[in-house]
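**Paired protein data**
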Amino acid sequence: MRHRVFNDDGDTELVFVMGWGNRWTHENVSWLIGKLTDAGYRVHAFELPTNIEDFKADWLEPIAEYVLEFEEYQLLAHSSGALVAQALDGADDHVYLSPWWGYGADYPDALLDLVSKVPTTLPCLPVGDMDRDALGERATDHQLATTPQWVSPAFVRETRHAQQDLLTIDHDAVVFCSLRDPVISLRPIGERVPAEHVVLYDGGHELFSSATRERYIDLLLDALEDGAAAIEARSIVPA
């Protein structure tokens, strides 16, 4: 797993667990990291491997061991990064962007059950449409071209097990998500996070690739600093 620190002179530690296929070189990811460093954070950004054999060994444990060095830190996670982040200890505030706590409607359970039983780690399963409509209007050609197109049956098996074993979400956590997101299931969010702690935006899977991202970035930064209290007194109408 690759990780990189941005803004060594930052005042506050922030762990950012990026989503599946996200890279620092993606323009919209870089935009978000820039906003975080401008806000004074020392950002510890993690790129998740896009194919795994074991959820804990390949995704969770490297980050869990890394955060042990922090007395306190803020936690931001996107998509599959939120599947990892919900199992991390020690964060002061938790902000999840489009948390991948369940597969989207395009991936029926019967199909997932079937492919997860295939005994191979070879990436041979197409991931479906990860295009601009799915991710967000600002998704760049470079981002789309460098997003992997295949995962393995082992990947499906391990991520489904992790989704089924979700821990209790922190009571002060904030979730940003879109009702038009085709990648994730919204049901696990509704089952685990109070509605007043959920911020809806109009767009695809990636808030940072949304055409409306500028309307939400200040609220995201406030949520990182003050948790759910930052959004309870504010109301944003998706546009």
The chain has one domain: 2-232. The chain has a mean pLDDT of 94.
